[in-house]
Specification:
The complex is a heterodimer.
Chain A lengths: L1 H31 L6 H19 L7 H18 L9 H23 L14 E4 L2 E4 H23 L1 H11 L1 H6 L4 H26 L7 H15 L4 H21 L5 H15 L10
Helix pairs in contact in A: 1-5, 1-8, 1-9, 1-10, 2-3, 2-4, 2-8, 2-9, 3-8, 5-6, 5-8, 5-10, 6-8, 9-10, 9-11, 10-11
Chain B lengths: L10 E10 L2 E11 L4 E5 L6 H8 L5 E7 L2 E2 L5 H6 L2 E4 L11 H8 L6 H14 L1 H4 L11 H13 L5 E5 L7 H16 L3 E6 L2 H7 L2 E6 L2 E7 H6 L1 H7 L3
Parallel strand pairs in B: 3-8, 3-9, 6-7, 7-8
Antiparallel strand pairs in B: 1-2, 1-4, 4-5, 9-10
Classes of the chains: A mainly alpha, B alpha/beta.
The structure holds adenosine-5'-triphosphate and magnesium ion.
């Protein structure tokens, strides 16, 4: 029972991180109709930015998050303006092809630039934890969870309450009307993609605090983000939180009861199941 | 309005042609609209009225000349045209269905930076359309047809338009609602907003407007003061069934 509680807590803490990872993918998918297969590779880049900031400039990984996010935002804005605006609202196959190409290129470049070595970000407090009854709560994982939830809810408020957030939702719903009401789509798409990558950058920084990084982590992270977006739907960041927590918990329990190597199998099992049972997602609209 | 002819037009369209692919839906149309006029553009299904508005808003390509308030629109993008105050209430309303009424209205003010004035205008809209005030948090897609049209008009007015183009406002609405919306058009004209009213309901449009243009298969075939058009035997026979 104690073990179960511990694994549950681990799963929830992991789930928060999963939610931010997926949030950027869901945002870009919902607004631009691009399933960004390179999303995980951008998370990987964000993790390396954090790693360099920590090892090179001794910037605490949590304080470095805004920098990772900003770097990825700029990269995202430029990529969308320069390349991806060509495929917005193009047939899905084209967008998959081009983002898959990006993923391959980014992974390759990362391998050259960063080497294939595993890296970890180990701030002095990395080993600290709190004991809550039978359950151990590692400080870093808890902090990553809190930041992740704050980011996700912040994104939700941004979309609901700000002028740009409203324009992003409006464009996703009715492009014709948005254009008639003063939205410049290329700029708006670039802002949206930039925001999606900023979230990936922050997610990468958080990922680096709780896990090892190497150039090849992108593929799995994309797949998990995809699964969560399907579960949570694209409409509402809160759905993504639920999806993230769900996946985190199921994965942790699977590792405990079936075997440590089956964690990823669990996420794809869920994905398949959802696609078969409720193609529109568990929590609403998917595309 | 005879005095109108001596002033500079707010909008001048010369030899405007537009279409979809090979097909021309609008051929060599010319028209002028003067400040604070209500001008009707009438014609039957498929005459090219909506196409003309789309060309003015720069969402379809066109040849010919469009001058609005001293600006050549040909080289502008839809958002720039909108920024100049040429705003349309599109056919079929095109609301943001899964956004609230309030968010729809605020989208109308997307290009405005004068926050205080925007909030004042929001209150004005709710005073003008009390039905919307009761429904600020309702999703636009779940409004009744009449309420949706009110929402679409209010959204356009939130843009502080100089020229508001209204496409098929009366379609499918009860006479009392149509009357109310016509009253709104009159009221905003009194505040100095110019109106281009696109209608299939020729009687309705010409009885409200100052001047009118009749469009037939892409060409403007009649034009003049609304009171003269409504008495023109050709117009009466073709459009009023008299
Ligand atoms: N997106 C489009 N693609 C191809 N043809 C179009 C398109 N939109 C309109 N048309 C054609 O252009 C012509 C003019 O259409 P338009 O919508 O301008 O007419 P309208 O006067 O607004 O008619 P209605 O009163 O029925 O709204 C029609 O023959 C129509 O079939
Ligand atoms: Mg029409």
């Amino acid at each position: 029972m104690d073990l179960f509680a511990q694994v549950l807590v681990n799963g929830i803490l992991l789930g928060g991180l999963y939610a931010v990872m997926a949030l950027g993918l869901a945002l870009v998918w919902g607004v631009l109709n691009i399933v960004n297969l390179a999303h995980g590779a951008f998370i990987m880049l964000g993790a390396y930015v954090s790693w360099y900031l920590y090892t090179g400039a001794h910037i605490d990984p949590f304080l470095g998050l805004p920098i990772s996010a900003f770097v990825l935002f700029v990269l995202g804005y430029a990529l969308q303006r320069g390349l991806l605006n060509l495929v917005v609202r193009a047939p899905m196959f084209n967008t998959l092809l081009i983002t898959f190409g990006l993923e391959v290129v980014l992974t390759y470049l990362a391998q050259i630039a960063f080497s294939a070595d595993f890296r970890t970000i180990n701030p002095p407090y990395a080993g600290n934890s709190w004991q809550l009854g039978p359950v151990t709560v590692p400080v870093v994982r808890f902090a990553a969870f809190v930041v992740a939830i704050v980011l996700t809810i912040g994104m939700w408020i941004f979309l609901l309450r700000t002028r740009l957030g409203r324009a992003i939702r409006a464009t996703a719903q009715n492009l014709v009307a948005a254009r008639l009401y003063g939205v410049e789509p290329r700029h708006l798409y670039a802002m949206t993609f930039g925001l999606g990558l900023a979230l990936a950058g922050a997610a990468g920084g958080l990922y680096g605090t709780v896990s090892q990084i190497n150039p090849y982590i992108g593929g799995t992270l994309t797949a998990k983000s995809f699964a969560i977006s399907i579960i949570g739907g694209l409409d509402n960041p809160l759905g993504v939180i639920v999806g993230g927590l769900f996946l985190g918990v199921v994965e942790s329990l699977t590792k405990l009861y079936i075997g440590p190597t089956y964690g990823d199998v669990a996420s794809f099992g869920i994905l398949l199941l959802v696609l078969i049972v409720r193609p529109s997602g568990l929590l609403g609209r998917t595309a | 309005m005879n005095v109108a002819a001596e002033r500079t037009p707010l909008l001048r369209v010369e030899g405007l042609s537009a279409g979809y692919g090979e097909m021309l839906a609008l051929r060599e149309a010319s028209l002028e609209i003067y400040p604070a006029e209500i001008v009707a553009l009438v014609g039957s299904n498929g005459a090219g009225k909506t196409t003309l508005l789309r060309a003015l808003s720069r969402v379809v390509r066109s040849t010919g000349r469009i001058v609005f308030n001293g600006h050549d629109l040909d080289v502008l993008t839809p958002d720039e045209v909108f920024g100049l105050g040429l705003v349309q209430v599109p056919e079929g309303r095109q609301l943001f269905d899964r956004m609230t009424v309030q968010d729809n209205l605020l989208m109308g003010a997307y290009r405005r930076d004068d926050k205080a004035a925007v909030l004042r205008d929001l209150d004005r809209m709710y005073a003008m359309f009390p039905r919307l005030k009761e429904r600020t948090r309702q999703l636009a897609g779940s409004l009744s047809g009449g309420e949706q049209q009110m929402c679409a008009m209010a959204r356009a007015l939130m843009a502080a338009p100089v020229l508001m183009m209204v496409d098929e406002m009366s379609l499918g609405l009860a006479p009392v609602v149509v009357e109310q919306l016509m009253g709104v058009l009159d009221a905003i004209r009194d505040e100095g907003v110019t109106v281009l009213l696109v209608e299939q309901d020729v009687q309705l449009a010409l009885s409200t407007a100052d001047r009118g243009y009749v469009l037939e298969t892409g060409r403007i075939v009649h034009s003049g003061p609304a009171s003269e058009l409504i008495d023109d035997p050709a117009v009466r026979q073709a459009y009023l069934g008299l």
